[in-house]
Amino acid sequence: MKRKDFLSRTAIGGSFLLVSPWYFSSCSSSGDDDDMNPDNNGDVMIDLSDSKYSALGDIGGFAYVGDIIVIRTGTSQFTALSKICTHQQCTVGYDPGTNELPCPCHQSRFNINGGVLNGPASSPLTKFTVTQNGNILNIS
């Protein structure tokens, strides 16, 4: 192998090693897993008085917590669903005007209970149980 080829291949391989941690982590969840506060049962607890959840103060507001989207649907009602589209694992959003969760990748749409309204997704979003005790939401 010529010196020039060796140096070229070493540079390309070294560049891949430097970039690979970023590349592989870019397809993971949005990085808000550290917002999750699981209790001893594995349930997730959200403190509604925390400013990062201020959107949940209004009906129609939503917040992401780990792989969960939490939506305020009424004065004291909340819905928690998986934020991961069942088609190709994109992150769904929430449209309070239609009360639907659209997926930006392939236009799947889900209802407020996680049911599929429009494919290509064919499976519903996972729904979690939400209970409220004062300012604390418990998601299980």
Name a few traits of the molecule.
140 residues, globular, alpha+beta, Rieske Iron-sulfur Protein, single chain, three-stranded antiparallel beta sheet, 2 domains
Summarize the structure in words.
The protein folds into two domains: 1-30; 31-139, Rieske [2Fe-2S] iron-sulphur domain (Rieske Iron-sulfur Protein, 3-layer Sandwich). A hairpin with a 4-residue loop joins strand 6 (109-111) and strand 7. The model is unreliable at 14-36 (pLDDT under 50). The N and C termini lie far apart (59 Å). The protein contains one helix and ten strands. The strands form three sheets. A four-stranded antiparallel β-sheet has the order 2-3-4-8, with no helix packed on it. The protein is an alpha+beta fold.
Query: Tell me about the biggest sheet?
Result: 4 strands, antiparallel
In CATH, the architecture of the largest domain is 3-layer Sandwich
Beta-strand content bin: 25-35%
The run of helices and strands is HEEEEEEEEEE
Question: What is the overall silhouette?
Answer: globular
What gyration radius follows from the Cα positions, in whole Å?
A: 20 Å
Number of helices: 1
Question: Could you give the distance between the termini?
Answer: 59 Å
Write the layout of secondary structure elements.
Layout: H1 3-25, E1 44-47, E2 62-65, E3 68-72, E4 78-82, E5 100-102, E6 109-111, E7 116-118, E8 127-128, E9 130-133, E10 136-139
Antiparallel strand pairs: 1-10, 2-3, 3-4, 4-8, 5-6, 6-7, 9-10
